[in-house]
Specification:
Pfam families: Methyltransf_25. This protein is of the alpha/beta class and 242 residues long. 43% of the residues lie in helices and 21% in strands. The chain is built from eight helices and seven strands; from the N terminus they run ααβαβαββαβαααββ. β2, α4 and β3 form a beta-alpha-beta unit.
C-alpha cells in the first residue's frame, strides 16, 4: 500500500534537487496521482496501444519504468507469442519495488526489469517503446540522440509512446495552464508550501519542451506519423509511428 506523499509538507531549509530516492519511491503512487492530471487515463491507454501494436517475437520497452505502472498495463493487454517487456530505470529504489509489483501478478508475457541508464540500453527488434514522463528528466542535449536510437531499434510500423509535461510558447496560455495544474494539486490536498517547495526542487531537474519541439524531432528523425493523443492542462502524451 502506497504511503501518502508528505515529502514537502514541512519547511525545508536547504532545498536540494529532486531525486527518485527511497523516500520518493515509498510515496510515488500517491505523489503521481495527485500531481499529474490524467495519469490514470494515460496508463490505461498505454495498455490499449500496446495491445494494438505489440507483435509476436518482438521486444517492448518501458524506459524510465519507475514502479512499473505502464509495464503492468501493457502486460495485461499484450497477448502475443514470444513477446517480452524490458523495463528500465536508473533508481535502485524504484527497480526494487518494480520487481515486487511485477512478481505479484502472473502473466504469460515475461518482464525483465533492469537497473540502468536508459541512454545505455540497446534498443532492438522493438514493436513498442514507452517513455512515460521520462524524456523531460534527461539533459536537453541527450534527447535527440535517445529518440534516434529508439527509432533505429523500432520495427517498421512500431510505435513510440511519449508522455511529458509541456511548456507553451504563448506566455498567457503557459501561465494559465501552470495555474490550472496548481489548482489541480490544491484540489488533491497539497498545500501552498508543498506546491512551492516541490516546484523549487524539480525546476533544475526537469526541463520540459513545447509540443512543437517534440514534433520537430519526430519529423527530423523520420517517423511517418506523430500526434498528441491526450492532453490535460500542461501534461500530455504523444505517439510516433515508424
Amino acid at each position: 500500500m502506497s504511503q501518502r506523499d508528505v515529502i514537502f509538507s514541512a519547511p525545508i531549509e536547504k532545498m536540494g534537487d529532486f531525486t527518485f530516492d527511497e523516500r520518493v519511491a515509498e510515496v510515488f503512487p500517491d505523489m503521481i496521482q495527485r500531481s499529474v492530471p490524467g495519469y490514470s487515463n494515460i496508463i490505461s491507454a498505454i495498455g490499449m496501444l500496446a495491445e494494438r501494436f505489440a507483435k509476436p517475437n518482438s521486444n517492448v520497452y518501458d524506459l524510465g519504468c519507475s514502479l512499473g505502472a505502464a509495464t503492468l498495463s501493457m502486460r495485461r493487454h499484450i497477448d502475443q507469442e514470444n513477446c517480452q517487456i524490458i523495463a528500465v530505470d536508473n533508481s535502485s529504489a524504484m527497480v526494487e519495488r518494480c520487481k515486487l509489483h511485477i512478481n505479484a501478478y502472473r502473466s504469460d508475457t515475461p518482464v525483465n526489469v533492469i537497473e540502468a541508464d536508459i541512454r545505455d540500453i540497446h534498443i532492438e527488434n522493438a514493436s513498442v517503446v514507452v517513455l512515460n514522463f521520462t524524456l523531460q528528466f534527461l539533459s536537453p542535449e541527450d534527447r535527440q540522440s535517445l529518440l534516434e536510437k529508439i527509432y533505429a531499434g523500432l520495427r517498421p510500423g512500431g510505435i513510440l509512446i511519449l508522455s511529458e509535461k509541456y511548456i507553451f510558447e504563448n506566455n498567457v496560455a503557459n501561465e494559465l495552464l501552470i495555474d490550472l495544474h496548481h489548482d489541480f494539486k490544491r484540489a488533491n490536498g497539497y498545500s501552498e508550501l508543498e506546491i512551492s517547495q516541490k516546484r523549487s526542487a524539480i525546476e533544475n531537474v526537469m526541463k520540459p519542451d513545447p509540443i512543437s519541439s517534440h514534433k520537430e524531432r519526430f519529423k527530423n528523425i523520420g517517423f511517418s506519423s506523430y500526434e498528441v493523443w491526450f492532453q490535460c492542462f500542461n501534461f500530455g502524451s504523444m505517439f510516433a509511428i515508424k
